[in-house]
Records
---
Amino acid sequence: MIAERDEETTHHFRGKWFGFGPVRNDESLIFAVFETTAISGRRLNIKSFDRKKLIAAEQSIARQALVKKTVFENGVARRGEAVKGKFLGLATAKAGAIRGIFSEGWPEVAPKKLFGFGILDLVEDGDFDGHGTIGFLIKATVPNKRELGALREFFILDLADKFSEIHSIEECAWASSVGIGVARFGTIWRALISYPP
Amino acid sequence: MTAPQLIDADQRSTGESAVPKWLAEISRSATGGPRSEIRIPDRFLALWSQSGTGGSFYLNAFSSASATAEPAIVAQVRTISSLRLERRVSLERQSSPIDDDSLIYADNAVRDALQVIRRCNLSDAENVLLSEDGILSIQWRNLTSGAAMVFTGDGKIAASVATPGKLYSQKPLQFRVTDPLPQDFLKALEQFQV
């Protein structure tokens, strides 16, 4: 799960000088859909997401503005097809919309407003730099295990609704080399001004 | 993890006992209770004797069970759509891996769901999901809105409606399985007939 300050720091396996830094709210996130992904028509549903991955903050997404089409094709579509079946398309959602999913007034013991999800710029060895993950926030927890389970179901229902209809890889606006260069410069700049850590 | 187990589906899931209400009432009244004589006005009797075989009229009285008898089971018309949902819930239990310590909750959640589906004749849904911790979710959805019921296996249900501007997670209703479904929620479900 994701702690309060986790989203403010980078999670690139090589450190803060690499990757693109924390995910901003105005970024679009891409969810890849394969033959084995559960969907309802052209929409994601509650079964599209792996609850265990969400708890471990390992639900993979790609950051649309920071991934080139060729990188996505090779690093996600072709690679995923080996285990998940044919690549069918992708769905997109704004990071801000996902972070904005909250529980209100339920369960009774919970704080009045409880935000459900966080998004990390998690890049592990073998991932492409525009990789990220979605996960439940540690704060989004209630003591009663059954109520917690129900709360998470509602969060995932809302998460599925935040994604667009599934469309083809051609219909997506992919990153340009210039855009990626600017984003890399921004990462290095942020690392510089925060130096020493 | 424990291998999925079969939950005995009620025979009603086959539709065999889906008896129309009118037929159920007839059969109940025909199986017992004292006969009551109904007095027919003479003018009608006269007409009857002219055209029919004559004789007395006897009809069985309704609601003749004694106070000590078991409560009458009200048979309900079940739609095909509702029977389909019932079957999907049972199948979901059979096909879902459940954590060992959540098995009892999973079975309870499925039983609770079947009970409510039968009682309220809920129509088929877009998604039925039983999670590894034994929580059963049923979701109805159209292009702009949706409704969901979450059975937690502890005798409680959480239900919520999502519309543009309102999330499922916002202010769900919680009630017991034995409670009637909230009218607002039932009304919301009407728009998701599959």
---
Amino acid sequence: MSGADVEARLREPWSDLETDDATAFARQRDGATFGIWVFLASEVLFFGALFLTYTAARLANQEAFAAAGRETNIIYGTLNTAILLTSSLTMAVASQAAEKGLFRRLTLGCLAATAALGLAFLVVKGFEYREDIEKHLVPGAHFALSQAPAQIFFGFYWLVTVVHAIHLSIGIALVTRLTIKGWRDADFLKENPQVEVTALYWHLVDVVWIFLYPMLYLPGRSG
Amino acid sequence: MSTTASPTGLADPDELDLRLPVSYLAEGHSVRSWLLTTDHKRIAILYAVTITVFFFIGGAAATLVRLELATPEADLLRADTYNKLFTLHGVVMVWFFLIPSIPNTLGNFLVPLMIGARDVAYPKLNLVSWYLNVGGGMLAVAALLLGGVDTGWTFYVPYSTVFSNTWVSLTVLGVFTTGFSSIATGVNFIATIHLLRAPGMTWFRLPLFVWAMYTTSLMFVLATPVLAVTLLLVFAERTFGLPIFDPARGGDPILFQHLFWFYSHPAVYIMVLPAMGVVSELITCFARRKVFGYTFMVYALVAIAVIGFFTWGHHMFTSGMSPFAALVFSFLSFIVAVPSAIKVFNWTGTLYRGQVGFESPMLYALGFVGLFTLGGLTGLFLASIPIDVHVQDTYFVVAHFHYIMVGASVSAYFGGLHFWWPKITGRTYPETWARFAAILMFFGFNLTFFPQFIAGYLGMPRRYHVYPPEFQIWNVLSSAGAAVLAVAYLMPLGYLTWSLLFGKRATNNPWDASGLEWRTTSPPPRQNFFGSPQVQGGPYNYHPEGVAPVHDQPRLPSQGSLT
């Protein structure tokens, strides 16, 4: 990057550091990555508390959780796991390509694919929700299963999948923003820390799903 | 930065133009320049204004509670109103005053100054965190105006999810929102302290206040998300009927308590660690001594932050817990007293052979040490299971945590506010009034809360608006103390506001203190420093190494006394 480019991208307080612009820019990049890692630590505790709640409830009500787990649609669940894992691949490629700054079309293509896969996940999830509602798997008076603690399983199911979907939607918005900006401005993605920050966030949402898949779809299905 | 200096930015308006940059206060006077600012110093002021408002809202609720408790009968409030008032008092004081109090006002203002940085690492995020705090506060206040909440600040299930007919969801949403403000602040401080220290400012040269902010931020980042989830589960159960804790369907209300206290016990340390940081700065400055055992003070802060995460179970000794778990939580609660005691001894050690001055910030700091010691020692009573079973849910507990959260933390907040007031506003306040308020606050506080230890030990339960007549003497004492305390809290509001308009202009370093924040003008310019700070030594260099302190020397005004 030329000196003027670097200077234009420096923000406060990094622009005031008593170093040359290139060093300041490198520190700004480090700052962005560092910040998102700290935030992800916070997110880990957020989802960790949810997983703990699930674990405690499941240990107390093992049979009901197995019966409830058998009611989830494993086809949709597995399909979505495959979709999300693929999206992490495209996101990782986009992040690495942007960092090198050499492969603009590859970066843009992978970002667009990531956003599209994220949307595909939400669409599949929508079909799954419709089926769940038709099967009366919403806790309440008309709940399909006879065991009362199965309602806790589905209470957790709805809460955690919606929270995950909200996180994913934020990710899709961030990736779409990068795609549009990178498409309009040829230099935007090159060495831009925002790509890595978005990628780290995206991977966290993915990792959360890797935990959720066995928790929601596999209980009661072994043997 | 503007290079054309305007005389309004100088310490004295009649001074000649010295080509100094204008102060951060003079950079724009429009409402917009405040509400859209990314200057950490201005954001600190925004926070100070909001927490002051919340402090007096919460204080008003406490005043009504204490008035009602002056007599054993219910003669002022109905039971329902009483429940709503103590809930309002708890929610507002904990989440909208105490948690943001020192970190977001003094911390925001001072962390970049103390480490020699221009601003925090993410200035826009800093502003966003203020809006989240205000947004959450508005939701909570809206719940209050619509009719209030009666669950207590702990929102225990199943009462909060199944039975209460009050505005629980809205309040919970408010607290949830403000939690993200804490997380944003925590991320910001951690990154700032890691990445933006001035050259030469190594980790073990950081002032203890910065260390306190660092450890507090770790707790913000790692504890607050658990509260967010807990409140989200309550919200989902109430609003969408998703049962998680419902015992009728196999849910476990005790699980809620574990999750809640996993945040809320560290939250106590979020309130007291910053206070410890402030007091460390104050005591070393007014004793004119290097802080005793600097490295141990740092380790103690870190130890409290780490162990503080593993003591939450002591809130549930009586609600059903295996004897083994109770033993471990009891042990860990005793252990956390060790680093706290190290700090108390080190503050005392700092005073030893110091040239102790009794300026108003020091009076607050000494008050802090006394009240913190009492609060901490009674905490050991509660960590001990047999005594805890006896005094669980009595006024003994109320008195204990008020000694820590109000006695210690609020004293330190006021002490810090007075200490850095000349730096923040560029004005000096009337010292005699300030000393009087500090002493009054100490006595008012003890008069309010010491009788509660006795009433609680004798068996008076908390959260009732009527009580047997034999407890009246303690309650009358307590209510009388509350009146004194109210005056003591209102006085700074008066004289500090007066000083903004009529106070004398402050010098750059009125206390002759050693920190980097004093090496710039009062108030500082937008860029904090002229040129770039280089740090060449450790903190608290109040007297040279190997030289005996000079005795019996009257302090010159230039050496740090305003009197």
